[in-house]
Design a protein that fits this description.
CATH class of the largest domain: Alpha Beta
Order of helices and strands: HHHHEHEHEHEHEH
Low-confidence stretches: 1-12
Mean pLDDT: 80
Number of helices: 9
CATH architecture of the largest domain: 2-Layer Sandwich
Largest sheet: 5 strands, mixed
CATH superfamily of the largest domain: GAF domain
CATH topology of the largest domain: Beta-Lactamase
Strand content: 5-15%
Distance between the termini: 95 Å
Radius of gyration: 32 Å
Length: 248
């Protein structure tokens, strides 16, 4: 004979069951209420509506909510993957174009044209901060974008010492330094370019290179952006500039 539900539960009075034990017991026996339907009348199931609902309805509601949360997560993963895939393709195009340039002048022109297009920017330039007299270099018909080294250090402050890309806004002095011809720059990506053998290159470099990509949109480049691809482009530029300057 099947024992009465209430009698069987009464036998557990002396077991000192806590909430966790009861929950574990029910998790291991999902069919429990199918064989103890009379207990459902005694359960107090919390709900926001204030109206009585069945345990099954409650369970369905929880499953639907979890399903919605899972779908939102999947959608977020898909969107992120799509964005990363698009960014990878843009980066691949940029890298292939970079390694095909044969001079610093060609590289400078490429950066100015390509990065604007690929990153939907307003302007982009590869600068060289130099100790030399800029006027003398310009008189030699150089097409490179040159900046006074000490002024660049002073205006950029800590940004000049960064090892990784910076994304965010510029103050008035910084905007004037990089883009004096434009008063609409709202956000930038500044990508430092470092060399592991800088002393060897010092005599051949026209200055310390610095890649700046700018936008007239306030948060086009912002502090929450992942700089992985920008830093990668900086590393590619470093390697290629080195190969252009050192032939031995």
């Amino acid at each position: 004979m099947k024992p009465n539900s209430q009698n069987s539960l009464a036998k557990t009075d002396d077991l000192n069951l806590d909430d966790e034990s009861v929950a574990k017991y029910l998790m291991e026996r999902p069919e429990f209420f199918a064989t103890h339907e009379d207990l459902l009348l005694s359960l107090n199931i919390p709900h926001k509506s204030g109206q009585a609902i069945s345990l099954l309805e409650r369970q369905v509601s929880l499953l639907r909510r979890r399903n919605d949360e899972t779908q939102d997560q999947i959608q977020s993963f898909v969107e992120n993957a799509k964005e990363n895939d698009e960014l990878f393709e843009k980066t691949r195009t940029i890298v292939l174009n970079i390694i095909n340039t044969v001079s610093l002048e060609d590289l400078s022109s490429l950066v100015e044209e390509t990065l604007e297009k690929e990153f939907d920017a307003s302007c982009s330039k590869l600068f060289f901060a130099t100790d030399d007299e800029i006027k003398e270099i310009e008189e030699n018909e150089s097409t490179l974008f040159l900046l006074p080294l000490e002024l660049t250090r002073k205006v950029l402050g800590k940004l000049f010492q960064r090892k990784r890309a910076y994304c965010g806004s510029l103050n008035a002095d910084q905007a004037t330094l990089f883009f004096p011809e434009s008063n609409k720059i709202s956000s930038v990506a500044i990508i430092p370019i470092h060399f592991h053998d800088e002393n060897k290159l010092k005599a051949k470099l026209p200055g310390i290179p610095l890649l700046v990509v700018a936008s007239n949109k306030d948060k086009h480049f912002n502090s929450s952006l992942d700089t992985l691809f920008l830093d990668f482009i900086g590393e590619i530029l470093s390697a290629h500039i080195r190969s252009l300057l050192i032939t031995d």
